[in-house]
Specification:
Length: 141
């Protein structure tokens, strides 16, 4: 068998990925509940976050999402992706069905760091929140 250019060079990366997959704190990423894998789960969950549990509650309310159990190495990505999903859903919602959304990030310095290296995972979080901040005031119609 011929060995390619990357033979033996990715072993540390593969070992780190295997360790992450077996980390029980990250089970919500690698072993999600069965219902999360259904096609209608994401729109249903976003609707619950934005508009409330019942169809009669079309005006939302206060939602508190506790990320205290999320490991710090994936926290910036998880928080920013949730913010992006909520923001994008608001933009896609018909204007007469929209309502204002405010996202309060307590202890934001823990997961929205100052500008970092362009290729770091934290940079993705910074970019998402910057885009929301720039488009948010004009995106609500």
């Amino acid at each position: 068998m011929k060995q390619g250019d990357f033979h033996g060079k990715l072993s540390r990366l593969i070992a780190r990925l295997k360790a992450k997959r077996s980390d029980r704190r990250l089970a919500f990423l690698f072993q999600p509940p069965t219902e999360c894998m259904q096609m209608d789960w994401l729109p249903t969950m976003v609707h619950r976050l934005v508009a409330g549990r019942g169809a009669q509650r079309a005006k939302g309310g206060v939602k508190i999402i506790d990320f205290s159990e999320v490991p710090s190495d994936v926290l910036p990505l998880m928080v920013s992706l949730l913010a992006q999903v909520v923001f994008a859903t608001s933009l896609w919602t018909e204007s007469e069905m929209r309502h204002p959304i405010a996202i309060l990030c307590d202890e934001a310095h823990l997961y929205i760091p100052e500008r970092t290296q362009a290729d770091s995972g934290d940079a993705v979080a910074v970019e998402i929140f910057e885009r929301i901040a720039k488009e948010g005031s004009t995106g609500s119609g």
